[in-house]
Amino acid sequence: MRTLLYAIGPMLFDSLGIIVFAVLLALDAGIVPATVAGTVVAVAVVGYELARGRAVAALQWISLASVLFTAAATLFTGDPRFVMAKPTIVYLIVGTVMLRKGWLSRYIPPAQMAIVGDVMDRFGMIWSALMFASAALNLIVALFFTAWWPLFIGVFPLASKFGLFAVHIAVVHHVTQARLRRGAAVAE
């Protein structure tokens, strides 16, 4: 449970801009207010990290850059599909970044990394695959089922991430306990 709480904060914080955008769009706030609010929140997330003197995670920089680009394109053209396609671009970039070994170390206490670092690296690849699948699904829904996109973006990304997150945490916990028991048995 402690691992779950350790990881959920950064996960929600990193996604806050798109969450605000999707919620406002689903509430029929309009594309301009939703775009502006999502952009302001994404900028605020990065600004908050910088103000605290903390390193800004790569995913936060990627999210901010894509929010700024797609927000400008949406506001300039009035076409919401730019913002709707933004998650596809982000998912492709993030999926590629997630192919890097060790990126999950931010989400687990350092002491536990020594025990299950290999499992975390395998899950890094699984997370990457989820991002690539999410990119494809988002593009399909944004282009061909535009009216359904607010519901899709409000449900699928968070549900799929929290679902995989729950499986990830359960597997890591199980493997950690098994390895600790095995280590204790060998020590006796």
Beta-strand fraction estimate: under 5%
Q: For the CA atoms, what is the radius of gyration?
A: 18 Å
Question: Terminal Cα separation, in Å?
Answer: 28 Å
The H/E string reads HHHHHHH
Shape: elongated
Structural class: mainly alpha
Q: How many H/I helices? A: 7
- How many strands appear in the DSSP assignment? 0
Number of domains: 1
What is the residue-mean pLDDT, rounded to a whole number?
Answer: 83
What layout of secondary structure does this protein have?
Elements: H1 2-14, H2 16-26, H3 31-51, H4 58-77, H5 81-97, H6 110-144, H7 149-187
Characterization of the model:
The chain has 188 residues and is mostly helical. The chain has one domain. Helices cover 83% and strands 0% of the residues. The protein has seven helices and no strands. It has helices spanning 2-14, 16-26, 31-51, 58-77, 81-97, 110-144, 149-187. Helix 3 (31-51) packs antiparallel against helix 4 (58-77), helix 4 (58-77) packs antiparallel against helix 5 and helix 5 packs antiparallel against helix 6. The radius of gyration is 18 Å and the shape is elongated. The protein starts with a helix and ends with a helix. The mean pLDDT is 83.
Give a brief description.
By secondary structure, this protein is mainly α. It is 83% helix and 0% strand.
